[in-house]
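User: Show me a protein chain along with its predicted structure.
Assistant: Here is one chain, sequence first, then structure tokens.
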Amino acid sequence: MKKVYRKAAVAFWDVILVNLALVLAIFIHNEGRIDIGRLGEYAYLLVAITGIKMIVFKRFQLYSSLWEYASIEELMKVVGAVFVGNVIGVVYSTLTTFDIFFGIYLVSFVFEIALIGGNRFSYRILRRIKQSKSLVRQDDHDNVLIIGCGSTASLIATEIKSNPRQYGHLIGYISDDSTKYGQTIAGVKVLGNRYDILSIAKRHHINEIIVAMTSSSKELTKELLDECKRTGAKVKIMPGITEVIDGKVGMNNIRNVEIEDLLGRDPVNLNNSEIASYIEGKTVMVTGGGGSIGSELCRQIAKFSPSKLIILDIYENNAYDIQNELSREYKDHFKLEVLIASVRDRKAIFRIFEAHKPHVVFHAAAHKHVPLMERSPKEAIKNNVFGTLNVVEASNESQVERFVLISTDKAVNPTNVMGASKRLCEMIVQSMAAQSKTKFVGVRFGNVLGSNGSVIPLFKKQIEEGGPVTVTHKDIIRYFMTIPEASQLVIQAGGMAKGGELFILNMGDPVRIYDLAEDLIRLSGLKPHEDIEILVTGLRPGEKLYEELLMAEEGMQNTNHEKIFIGSPSDINFKILRANLEKMMDLIPLATDEEVKERLTVLVPTYSRLDAPSVKTVQSSEDVIKFKEQKRFIDAQSVSRIRKSSIESGTEVYANLAKENLVYSSQNY
């Protein structure tokens, strides 16, 4: 009802202004005199012309616009409506033989635009004045800085200025285009380039920064975000236009900056034809299909039109969720089946393979949590090793075309049970490849953001609870990639498989976990060490300071994809390995956890237990430096710290460094 009254009020004013414009035009044409004898004729004409113009105005939707947000588009509507109205008025006057001079309509046209357009834009002017007064009274209002000067930035600026109580006070823009410095957009100046962000933020007391560069590369976005972090302001980002569902940008599209943005990883370029050649029209199985990696593999596989997708998982809730998601999105485009079973159950696995005859298998089912597996080594072996053995042998017997193992960087020179178990999985796959028609391959990569067990969800929860955020070591580093990126590269690697390869994904630069914790706190609008404390708790059992992606003996070859490399196939005899695994299988029911770990050191020569007395500690600081520089994991600060320690304590660096994982054994040095 309020809207109806509002439209009626605007129409009422239009009637008055149309008549006023025509009267003023007649008055000016007659040089300030009105012919009294023609008053009745003029009155009849005004009624007719007013009726015509009101119909035209309605057709031009002049009563459907929100005039408090009036822009150039609304002004063009007014000009068009007034022009058409006056043209029809001239035609009407001619047909009805009203003797009205044509110049009156020209003058009336100008007056109507000024009066009707001015009336509408007065809404916006009065609103802006009212907002300016309210801003003066609001001392604690956010000062906003926009990075970008394109159309997206302009739309956001207009919305901010229209709703300052909600969005804050727009201070200015940042642009690397020097020709725009000092120019204004929506009445606000371009203040400088990216290198001026910190100084501008301090000078203008910026509380919030919005990155509005939807077409910039991930690398450039990362550089901008790194610069924004230094200001201490809240940072938000407008996602790329491809992420905006309806194609329209506005404040509702702006989101908080995520760690993914700070990694600066560009989207993966896939060879779709290579992937489609082994997935399209095939039956594809994903073990652990309800997990973080497994479910994303299912999403990516679904895009390549398999004839049937089998999701196999022991945990029904996650499997049910991904089933519902894919059913909604793809409906009957392919057959979707969810099977609840454990990879440990050899008979069940063989029955499933016999019944469904998959062409392609992605094996993602595994226990991955390092500290938990360190405390329960038998479970790690039963699930990861023997579970993989079951799926591998079932795949071989069913003559699966391709088998892709999801491995981990923790399998390289493992210092924990989980890593050692995954290295055994790699050995099983590579040794089976040498005697099977199935193309068995493994894909090794580091941590994925947001996966089950990842530090990111843990940090976010700790921040929500007010802290402290717990980090195991101040110098600990890890490699990260996003779940979609990892899954896409796994599928791409599957298309390259010839059998026996161990594919290694390019994880980019390592990330210091302590820095990651600080970034997450800042992105939450809080200050590290002031609002939220960071507590260093010490390395957990089996945890490394760093992770490796390649063992020295593997070498590394390029592929036709810039983010995928190949380690040389290992010369492992499957029959010998199988016999050793059977001994391990017989040992597990009666053995202690210590005995299981000792047996692992025999099966996996590169496995070095940090808690084992047989581990040889580093004897000198120079050995430490040499070891770490060769492995390419130590930064200049840590090298400096070790050298300083050697000066203070002579030349010996003992068990304190061993505890920090700076150790080696005869197998891996």
